[in-house]
Amino acid sequence: MNEIGFRAHDFGSFASAKELASCVSSVKSPATIQLAIGKVLKPSRAWREWDEEYISSIRDDLASYGVHVAVVGCYINPVHPDEDERRANIERFTRSLELNRAFGCRIVGTETGSWSPDISYSCRTYDEKVFSVFMDSLEQMVASAEANDAICAIEAVSHRHTICSVERMARVLELVPSDHLKVIYDPVNLVPIDGIAEKDGSHRERPSAEAQTDFVRQALDAFGDRICAIHCKDYVLDDNGFKKGDIPALTGVFDWQDAFKELAARSIDVPVLLENHNPATLPETLCALGRF
152 pairs with which residues across the strands? Predict the structure, then answer.
């Protein structure tokens, strides 16, 4: 069974890393987290002010409670239409890569952005021009990862992000074969806006076992050997047949038991980080996942 950890800011915001660690360790210790400093520590230093001493102090405070960072969350817009803003985004991501030893974690993760400045939907995001912009940004990020012995990890999101499908992710990985570029696999993020398709093209309220298994296998066939972390949440289809994601795992229609079976069959043993979890029901969720 993969190690189960947490996205830190789902626990709320905290005045210090020790307060965060105390909260996490009250649920599970030792524990791993995805840490986005600006989202969970209030106040925190601006990223341009980060240095080895500051980041190491956060790492040590977490470790004193048995909490360790599995992924550094640095979610930027690498295709921001404003070139200066895009450059600043890349600089912020690069800063986290440079500090990976201080974090005690080599993996720095991001989604792949949108041509809309606020990362909302834009049909222009899928233009080949924007894909080229993304590849230019990614090459800079991967070069920094290689220089700092870190991992640049990217996460695909269906419908509105530059890398929105298994096929697009596979294309990126083929173009950049570096061992320093990996994938954060979020199967729910990859579910299309109208759900997982059946063989006949229909979309059921709850996908058939065959449809879900095919959906997961397609991704693992394409990039299973490049996965460095997994995000675990759930989704449902609303009354209009559109995906409502970002709900706690095991509260929707995604079959996580089947997904874990596929991961185990391929010996993909990487951290699984719960997203959008409810701290009040975490013990129940962990118990249920532990039975898979």
Answer: 108, 181
Contact criterion met (CB below 8 Å) for 237 and 174:
no
Domain of 205, CATH number, reads 3.20.20.150
CA 7 to CA 5: how far, in whole Å?
7
Domain total for the chain? 1
Query: What token pair was written down for 107?
Result: 């993996």
Give residue 282's domain range.
Answer: 4-290
Give me the tens of pLDDT residue by residue for the chain, a chain 292 residues long: 689 999 999 999 999 999 999 999 999 999 999 999 999 999 899 999 999 999 999 999 999 999 999 999 999 999 999 999 999 999 999 999 999 999 999 999 999 999 999 999 999 999 999 999 999 999 999 999 999 999 999 999 999 999 999 999 999 999 999 999 999 999 999 999 999 999 999 999 999 999 999 999 999 999 999 999 999 999 999 999 999 989 999 999 999 999 999 999 999 999 999 999 988 889 999 999 988 8
- Between the alpha carbon of residue 123 and those of residues 114, 119, 195, the distances in Å are 9, 12, 19
CA gap 285, 80 in Å, rounded? 37
For the record, the structure tokens of 170 come out as 């596979």
- 197 DSSP β-pair partners: none
Strand bridging mode 243-247 / 234-237: antiparallel
- Please name which of 179, 209, 193 lies closest in space to residue 243, comparing C-alpha atoms: 193
Exposure string for 156-173, b = 16+ CB within 10 A, e = fewer: bbbbbbbbbbbebbbebb
Beta bridge partners of 129: none
Bridge partners, residue 273, by sequence: 5, 231
Q: Is the pTM of this model over 0.85?
A: yes
